[in-house]
Amino acid sequence: MTDGKHEVLVIGGGVAGLALALEVADHRRVTLLRPASDDQGASRWAQGGIAAVLSPQDDVEAHIADTLVAGDGLCDERAVRFTVEQGPSAIEWLLSLGVPFTPDTSPDTGYPYHLTREGGHGARRIIHADDATGRAVVETLRQHVDAHPNIGKYGDLTAIGLIGDSEGHCRGARCLDTDGRLHELLADDTVLATGGASGLYRHTTSPQPASGEGMMMAAELGAELMNLEFQQFHPTCLFDPEGPAFLISEAVRGEGGLLINALGERFMPALDPRAELAPRDIVARAIDAEKQRTGSDHVFLDIRHLGETAIRHHFPTIHAHCTSRGLDIVHQPIPVVPAAHYSCGGVTTYLDGATTVPRLHAIGEVACTGLHGANRMASNSLLECLVYARSCARRLQTADTLPIAKLAPALWGSQKVSLESIEEIREAMRQLMSARMAIVRTDQGLNEAARGLAQLHDRLAPQVRSAAPSVPLTNLWHALRLARLSVDCARARRESRGLHFNPDCPIHGDETPHPSRIQLEEM
Hints:
Oligomer: single chain
Helix content: 25-40%
Domain FAD-dependent oxidoreductase 2 FAD-binding: 8-382
Family: Belongs to the FAD-dependent oxidoreductase 2 family. NadB subfamily.
Number of strands: 18
InterPro entries: FAD-dep_OxRdtase_2_FAD-bd (IPR003953), FAD/NAD-bd_sf (IPR036188), Fum_R/Succ_DH_flav-like_C_sf (IPR037099), Fum_Rdtase/Succ_DH_flav-like_C (IPR015939), NadB (IPR005288), Succ_DH/fumarate_Rdtase_cat_sf (IPR027477)
Largest sheet: 7 strands, mixed
Radius of gyration: 22 Å
CATH topology of the largest domain: FAD/NAD(P)-binding domain
Catalytic activity: L-aspartate + O2 = iminosuccinate + H2O2
Number of helices: 14
CATH architecture of the largest domain: 3-Layer(bba) Sandwich
Number of domains: 3
Distance between the termini: 28 Å
Region (Disordered): 500-523
């Protein structure tokens, strides 16, 4: 069924989607698709905070320089400068909405809220709400969104594809409700805020991570994707094979946490002068190498020396969660491993969130703005969500007239595909990606991943062509094709840079590296 005409359709309800909806709604009617699963996505689980130049001892040029270093030569400096310069006003906006950031009551503070430091940052510039910043920001934004009369919310619809027209414009989205019925939401403007692609891997830092569905929906309309090979692995996810994923914030290292191996030895100072506060790509590779060297399946993050008072004060959420899992972090080091965390690549966008497809925008982790380059610096992600949501909102506050054009039809069959078959292929895909396309890649491993994913694709493609649409099936179809494109990008990059490390080509290539740009070809 066709659900009328919508002005601005926002797909995704994390920080980026909520912020954009709120900023546009005073000017145009907004329809927000926010399934219940968004409460388990990356935004809510962001612990550390938001990077911005707020202290009198900090400055914009220093934040820009730190971001460029972390991005390992592949950042778009214009995007970096734009993002950093917009940071303070984004924080002021959140404060005006009532986000409960942690105050700093020390007598010599130059800023009223506590600022912590994380890897890659040369100054304390991370504003936070204890160690649950994402939750605090999401809940505050959602309260304002729920109260806004110009925002219509759908919690029972999941987008499975975008609607294109004969002129190459985006015209909205096709969705399924909880009973499996198809709905076509036609829209003047469509915004993707669907998250990243860490769900392509077995172990992640989010309970229900996205698997690049939004990226592939955009690619199906012809949108350009960029830098898919740069998947960030957070160095410190709680190691507990029997329990769910749980992130141990980078702020733990920012406040003095030390990484030690199974023998109780620190290993970071010998590898990088920044030690535990080196950028995430360096720390994750170091942990991976240390695990292999010692034959252990994890390392430890030790904060016992901080004392119980400081631990409970700075990290109440982490302390409570670890206690619930039987781990006393006041007296025991925290077992940690790297886990898939953040996609630095995604849908190519401009500074206002526009993609290469007219009337389609992308913000947040689904987008590739050029800010992160080859490796995202800690806490620049929520900053990016806010800055580009507000920038995109300014563009969308004024409506343009849509040309008359024929809508592209949806092509589906009527057969059912078993959930067991879908889950079997998804698990095989994740196994391949985790074994061959993770922290360290090799030519042989990438070739094996390409062959294995092609075989899985050949198994799934006939079922997709003949099957009735379902959320699990379409999500897997998006994920599997994105995994293949990501491997293709990694095979094509004949160097090691940032998050892409291949010992078969271990040094940087050109002095002026180029982003990996790709468009979907029929698979």
